[in-house]
Design goal:
The structure is a single chain. This protein is of the alpha+beta class and 176 residues long. It folds into 2 domains: 2-51, no CATH class; 56-175, Immunoglobulins (Immunoglobulin-like, Sandwich), CATH 2.60.40.10. It is 24% helix and 52% strand. It contains 2 helices and 10 strands, in the order E-E-H-E-E-E-E-E-E-H-E-E. Strand 5 (88-99) and strand 6 (102-109) form a beta hairpin. It is elongated, with a radius of gyration of 30 Å. 13% of the residues are buried.
Length: 176
């Protein structure tokens, strides 16, 4: 190879054609292509997150599973409907249980539960409560004959687009 005129590039020897090589183009291609791919993937993930529909959560059942002088335990069964056309995994559940606006329990469980596409799954949530919190609620129940409850919290979902955290809430009542 011989150097062409004016140092503008490199000329291939013996071909008669000037082939100009620009080292900066290679650098731009090396950096530009990965950046463009990254932006494209981020854009697809953003669109996919917008297409994600929040699962519908309702309390299906509540059972007292234990009592002691200090408190007790419940098993709250949540009915979780996955309206999406893809599987979701719940990685963690954070929850708060309110009875007549009194917080009686709060907690977190870390357990993977799979929600199949376009289906409903029952998720059992073990809940621990202190007796003093329930004592006030119990007096109200004895005097009024009913209680309103609310279970709120967040599910940490593992989706094909990454991890998403979405809130849930379900209300209900208990009567004598």
């Amino acid at each position: 190879m011989e150097v062409g005129t004016g140092g503008a590039g490199v000329t291939a020897a013996g071909t008669g054609h000037g082939v100009r090589r620009r080292p900066w183009r290679r650098a731009v291609c090396r950096l530009g292509l990965p950046v463009a791919l990254l932006l494209g993937v981020a854009g697809c993930a953003s669109l996919a997150r917008r297409a994600f529909q929040n699962p519908v959560v309702a309390v299906a059942d509540t059972k007292v599973t234990g009592l002691s002088p200090r408190g007790g335990s419940l098993e709250v069964t949540l009915r979780v409907e996955n309206p999406n056309d893809f599987r979701l995994d719940i990685g963690a559940v954070r929850y708060v249980v309110l009875v007549d606006s009194t917080q009686v329990a709060t907690g977190r469980i870390d357990r993977v539960v799979t929600l199949e596409p376009s289906s409903t799954t029952l998720v059992a949530v073990p809940v621990q409560f202190a007796l003093d919190a329930v004592a006030m609620v119990g007096v109200r129940f004895l005097t009024t004959g009913s209680l309103q409850y609310r279970v709120t919290g967040q599910f940490d979902y593992v989706t094909p687009f990454g991890r998403l955290t979405r809130p849930f809430a379900s209300d209900g009542s208990v009567r004598r």
